[in-house]
């Protein structure tokens, strides 16, 4: 189809809105001090914590979100459509609201938090576990939505054939559903990891900003922005590089319908 | 197998009872939306009926999940698992059933469908005909007690279909395995099936031996798909000797001395008042029984059931009257000769 020429103007502007800020950031980088800035103790500690917590929450997303996607795509019961839209909640909710919600569920006065505290002596807020939970909360829909899409695209025909060949439900899941889903799992995992790595609002509301325990890279950047702008920009560059790697790995499949 | 199903889905209702004898191949034909595929899915257990029963080999199967039914399904699309090799695809059934000799079973079936050389390939490296042969081997390697075939030749191109049709005939006959095949092709029904069931709007409107239904159809649908000329007889080198003793030359893969049928379209028939004596042509002497409009053409019916479609101009020129003797002439290249099942 040939597009109306005028359409190119807003299209290019839209592209500029997405890309220009990153170029602006690159222009502000102090390239001489860069190695020193990204290898400071605080920076390395924040980066290490970010990578660890993002990996943990991605794993949690996969272990819980994978089965959730299967149920949403394959099960058939009343209210399923409603459940499916609820799963998108963290996607549309401001993360800081999600963090507050987590705090009032799992904080010392929250009904689940009280039970954990009294019953098991577990206090989650302001711990590394809280960071992982906050990241899992915001990243879960990314994994669930991409897996569910992949499952719907794949359809149930291969699974039906496997059943007529005598394969029970677990065998079908293990030998047909999951192997066919691997590309979708791959891009879902990468997207969830990227979202977890960039998580800020829910983390600061639910886990605070304690160096070495809950201060992840985005929190460190926000903090440095007040005192040392060059350091903040250098760390931002680090996240930009990670984001570009993520896009390079996940983009083709995420965009092309997870085939 | 004995089955009876009632199912209502919105405006569609299905109410069918059918029996398949051991070793019998039953073709189910019918217009789109008549419930053919639904019937197969009900038997396979992929769709639940509102009411009914299903018995196979003395077992009551209605409450049994698909994987415990022992009912194989070959669909229009081969649906080979794309992440597995051809061999692993065929091994899938025996492995799922925890057979220790799954490798041997798979190799034997690959050989049976002439696909042993493809064992190491991935499904995407196969042609349509090759993939369907492997899918057949995979279905049979699970050793089902009943095979369901859902238009197994429809997705194949015209070059690949005859070979797979011949293969289906060979393995279904050799195994003496009961099968139910959905098809829209009179030829498939004729070549592969003992009995034909015509389904319309969820009900069986006609059933009987394949050749009887296809040559003397009583339902509108059977008449429409069976608008072919069929001459029964015994296959000979390069053709078929009809039961009346006339040799009809044609093309086909049938062996010699088999019970068979020559098939040709009424549109391929030319009509002459005198025998044209052209060597590559078959000339059949018939007595005209009737004439009727057939689309833009005139369909001539002979009293032995053969039909010819000619233009109104040709009909006028020939000045034909019912009861007259004429020659139906058809080129050998327009005639297919097929082995057929004794179903008359």
UniProtKB/TrEMBL annotation, chain B:
Pfam families: ABC_tran (PF00005), TOBE (PF03459). It comes from the Bacteria. Keywords: ATP-binding, Cell inner membrane, Cell membrane, Membrane, Molybdenum, Nucleotide-binding, Translocase, Transport. Residues 277-339 form the Mop domain. InterPro entries: AAA+_ATPase, ABC_SmlMolc_Importer, ABC_transporter-like_ATP-bd, ABC_transporter-like_CS, Mo/tungstate-bd_C_term_dom, Mop_domain, P-loop_NTPase, Transp-assoc_OB_typ1. Residues 1-226 form the ABC transporter domain. GO terms for molecular function: ATP binding. Gene3D superfamilies: 2.40.50.100, P-loop containing nucleotide triphosphate hydrolases. This is ATP-binding cassette domain-containing protein. It comes from Allokutzneria multivorans.
